[in-house]
Write a structure and sequence with these properties.
Strand content: 25-35%
Protein name: Cytochrome oxidase complex assembly protein 1
Distance between the termini: 61 Å
CATH class: Alpha Beta
CATH architecture: Roll
Strand order of the largest sheet: 1-2-3-4-5
Number of domains: 1
CATH topology: Nuclear Transport Factor 2, Chain: A
Pfam families: Coa1 (PF08695)
Shape: elongated
Order of helices and strands: HHHHHEEEEE
Length: about 130
């Protein structure tokens, strides 16, 4: 029982840290993106349909939910807009995919999908899959 009070205090400090710091915001963004399967899956599908992406990256493998946690996610406009970067793996190489989208009802409307290839260095490039001019 002597351990309960210090353990409860540490738990309260951790909760406060997540609640009142920017780290808490980042954690919430990742958690929301992790829960929104269609956001990532639809972007990957669109990228996988691009002939240049297929040529350079190959067939894109299904994205593991953990890929979202290895990337970057920023929600805005009351969580109705998102900018994210996630790692994708293809049959030929891996790449980073940058996505900008906004919620339109229950669906996501994509404004930007870029696939960035870094390795090997001789194939370094950015493939613009989708760009909506404003």
């Amino acid at each position: 029982m002597k351990w309960f009070v210090p353990l409860a205090g540490v738990f309260i400090l951790i909760i406060g840290f997540f609640t009142f710091t920017m780290f808490g915001d980042h954690f919430n963004n990742f958690a929301q993106a992790y829960a929104e399967d269609d956001l990532v899956e639809n972007a990957v599908q669109k990228a996988g349909e691009d002939p240049r992406v297929r040529e350079v990256v190959g067939e894109i493998m299904p994205v593991d939910k953990m890929a979202v946690l290895n990337g970057e996610v920023r929600y805005s406009e009351d969580n109705n807009a998102v900018e994210m970067t996630i790692k994708i793996n293809g049959t030929k190489t891996s790449a980073m995919m940058d996505v900008a989208a906004e919620r339109a009802g229950e669906q996501w409307k994509y404004h930007k999908i870029d696939v960035r290839i870094k390795n090997p260095p001789e194939k370094k490039q950015t493939i613009r899959v989708l760009a909506v001019s404003e």
